[in-house]
Amino acid sequence: MAKIFAKDTFAVVDLETTGTQREKGHHIIQFGCAIIKNMKVVKTYSFMINPHHEIPQSVVNLTGIHNEDVQGKDDFSVYAPKIIEILKGTVFVAHNVDFDLPFLNYELVQHGYEALTNKAIDTVELAKIAFPTLPSYKLSDLTAQLKIKHLNPHKADSDAYGTAVLLIKIIHKLESLPQATLNTLSSLSSSLIRDTSWLITTIADNLRKQKRPLGSNYMQVRNIILQKQNDQLDRHGENAHFPINDDEKKKLFKGKLHFRRAQVDLINHLHKFVNNPDKRAMVVEAPNGTGKTFSYLFAYAYQLYSGRKLVVATPTKVLQEQIIDHEIPQLLKVTKLDLTAEVVKSSSHYLDLDGFVQTIFQGTPNKNTLVLQMQILVWLTETKTGDLDELNLTNYNAPLFAQIQHPGDARVGSRFASVDFWNLARKRQEEADILVTNHAYLANHYMDTIWGQNPYLVIDEAHRFTENVISSRNDSLRFEALWGVLSYLRNLLYFSNNGVENQFNDNVQLNFLLKKLDSQILELIQCINDLQKDLYAQNKNAVNKTILANGTLELSFQGKGLFNKNSQFKQSLGKFQQKLEEVRELTNQVLFELYHEQEQVLTNTETLLSEITEQIDRLDYYSEKSYQLADILSDSQNLDQDGFILMVTNPDDPLSTNLDWLMLDAEDVLNQIYSRFDHIAFISATLTSNHNFDYAINQLALSNMSLVEYIGKSTFNIKKHLQVIAVNNMPNPDSEAYEEDIEQILINDLTNKNHVLVLMTNLEKIRTVFMAIMNSPELKDFEILAQGISGSNNRIAKRFVIAKKAIIIGADSFWEGIDFHDCGIDTVFAARLPFESPDQPEVRLRQKKLEDQGINVFEKDSLPRAVIRFRQGMGRLIRGEKDHGQYIILDPRLWSKEYGKAFLQVIPVKVKKVTKEELKELENKKK
């Protein structure tokens, strides 16, 4: 391949500075530069620069550059001529070029020099485009993921070298792309940062001159290059009978899997259950490291030759992927069975090729969307599934996703029908023997034909199943948001300069419709107001009132309290539904007229039509929610199975009222789900409370099922892997002194740790602790992450796994819901015993329902839930035989309260009771 950049010299620059705001007196303290010629790093430069200012502690923590490192060094005025000479005639490159180049130019101008006018390109955008499936684009993460060696991350010279090698890898990757992909990337790239598009366009233009045949692993549909899809299942292997005795299993396992007595016992009990026609369900507690996933797959696998499928439901995508990518391949390797497996998730996870291609020709509304489009183009040359989760995005809030997520319809006749990712996924699922899904999807799609006839079911992490079923059924009717939709619609129709009325004022039929529609919209708004007033008027019946941090009033209700016999709400809701349907129908008629008018006007109305269509979709959404609510209200007997929450954004204004509803009792729904499946196994490492399954059986609504119970043994000696330490002289957990002690423990006692999880129960306290420790010199090597501060929980989990040293301060799902596979955790701090806050509306409503039934809420609900969550927190540490770690309990109530015994009973090792001072000494001994 010709050397495209043979005549170009790249100067890859990285600056370390005293801060990010150059206009506020922040200065450069190190200039690093790596020179690339002929795709090789030929020279590096590093200048330490005296800023004549104190270096902030946060910068010292990040860079390792101290005040004494720059004292006595020359200031920027000495280095400016040298820097100008080094960069003369080069292409300026940086990882976040819009920071480094303006900062450098500002210093140059301040010292009387001209600003640099070099071509400038950005390796952040280029890395995202070239490597679209990486989980992070921070330089330190990229160099680790791409195996780029540089010695001192966050030092300018080392970072410049690392960025230079990264640029070379990016160029090689772009050069390897199919020409049609490069052409489209080039056509989209003009809005990239500064001159970044020049690099892509230069590669595309040069390679276009060569005749490059499309690789045999690709296919082209229109101008989109895709990996060739294989929709034929690769059947291989042999059918076999379940190995009954130990010798048969040892023969199968030899050289592939260690024979462990506890795991084999688990397999045998599961196999016996699956073959017992008199039993429908089994509850299993299998300790971490038992190999429970392989065990249940092995036990069921030999039953799948009768055409019946095994459905496995897990709580998270991470677990789904682990089962598909690791556990099932291991099963097939050991057994040599001829089975196939597929993930089942909603269509919105898959790329809609028709929708995506349409967005490319619509113009680009913003930079993030542009980069995402370019990432997807490159990803399409790599993906065999079209599953958007492969892109490792932490949220799907970008506007582009509304257009490119697959709606789930069967594509027939479209240009991409033959390669439609969702249709191909459904075909593979229909033919597969094992289907792996998540709890929420199963709860909402248990009647789907995809599961086949009389399928088996395993609920993995079963202690979370009821909670996930409930949350999947919770919903809301946000009246303020609907009001906003109607206001925006009126603006599109009547008030905007490019609106319908202003553009088409001579169309008699259209204007008749518009006049009629406006009065209907105003009447609908009045209906909304009536509903809001009806709800707000019941505030005295709330079982709980809370003012949230943002000022919203949160009112929790039982069904009978909000919708009593005298309530006019149901009547008002019917009127609202009728009026909403009339507005939607009239708006559709307006849209129909506009499509007829479109060809006769010169102005471009595509955007207007698209926006009106979008508002109709939103009206459909609110109509659907209103009918869901009407169904709940129509069954007065079951009304108290649900809780209701009013969210009043302005506590003094009834017209700021919104309604949420949530399921309090899932028994009926759970029984409906169970009726669809056969021989259901409920498996978790934490299903027992007080050494029995009573709480789990009640929660999972299994009391009436013919049930098998089994508590497995650990496959290794947990005492050699887990150390539990409890501090016995901490102050009251509700005191300021308690938070201060936690902060000091984190600052002083983590010297030998790499990955630390701090589990709390209050989001506000998380913020306080985070702010106190974030700039501590003692923690300078740690990436400190906090729930509610450092992005989504998904993003926090990914950063934690990637970082060499990291601390998470979290609550809620970090006790049990977020997965950290492939990341050993050294220490888990249980800052407080994990009782749920009674201020949470769902907790208060559930407890009120139990109180009304005469049930001891603390004994039967609060304590068992807390104990299971406590065990889950401990289970974060030891996932397998290679893991070792400390579980440090800081809550003094473990010793001072009678209920502390319930927590002590579930700890599988002897608890080491220490003082705060002794905890510090333990750490010092390890140094």
UniProtKB/TrEMBL annotation:
GO terms for cellular component: cytosol. ATP binds at A286, P287, N288, G289, T290, G291, K292, T293. InterPro entries: ATP-dep_Helicase_C, DEAD/DEAH_box_helicase_dom, DinG, DnaQ, Helic_SF1/SF2_ATP-bd_DinG/Rad3, Helicase_ATP-bd, P-loop_NTPase, Ribonucl_H. GO terms for molecular function: 3'-5' exonuclease activity; ATP binding; DNA binding; DNA-directed DNA polymerase activity; helicase activity; hydrolase activity, acting on acid anhydrides, in phosphorus-containing anhydrides. CDD domains: DEDDh (cd06127). SMART domains: DEXDc, EXOIII, HELICc2. Belongs to the helicase family. DinG subfamily. Type 2 sub-subfamily. This is 3'-5' exonuclease DinG. The lineage of its organism: Bacteria, Bacillati, Bacillota, Bacilli, Lactobacillales. The gene is dinG.
